[in-house]
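Need tokens for this chain, all 267 residues.
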Amino acid sequence: MRMKSELPAIRIEGIAFWASRLPGWEVARSVICGDMPAPENAAPRPAPVLLAPTERRRAPDTVAIALAVASQACESAARNPGELASVFASTHGDLAISDYLCATLATTPTLVSPIKFHHSVHNAAAGYWTIGTGSEAPYTALSAYQYTFGVGLLEAVTQVICDHRPVLYVAFDIEAKGALATMATSRGLLGAALVLAPADDSNSNHRMTLNLESGDAPPTPARSPAAHLVSDNALAPCLPFFEALALNESRVRLQVSEQASLLVSLG
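Here are the structure tokens for all 267 residues:
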């Protein structure tokens, strides 16, 4: 028996997207819609401008991509980033640093870098966000393997509904390195962010409703010209959602487990 649970509508106030070959939401939206070809060369990683220069230079790729899209989404929503509760989601966290730690511990354990160990925790990007924005609002850091984007979206929407306040949702993954790359494959940088808020009946634009459904209904596949540009990144399952936003489509389905999916209605 298929079970359904519909959550109240919320509003999308801000959108951000950044990938190595799609550097920014405007570029990504144009490529998705077929209005422009994808850039031929990968862009350098975005700079986490919220951080002081010293912190910015030593920040790993996870922090750089997460803080960049988080800042852009808040700017798009015209929201003060320091006031927003947040949800940070990453499939693998920082695989490059995890590989470094494993290799160093196996060969010269006394030479482990305290700074890199500090960056290895899964909530490192969320921690840097609170430092950079001076935020005292609560944050959540989560992972759900290949279901990470959908689970993170469900968590963020649930917080908006339960706490009746806006929430920043940030999802990101980076390139795998070393031996870990044979087990947890991921290429390039990919980050996306949304500012979500309680629905305002006076503004029907950019509304979103989630239906949590049990059963084996397949997720919506990525199918735009942008699909092959992010398909090797662990966060690639997020692309159908952003294709739906760019193309003004009304529905997209995301997986949240082997037995459940989210049917997202957009309008």
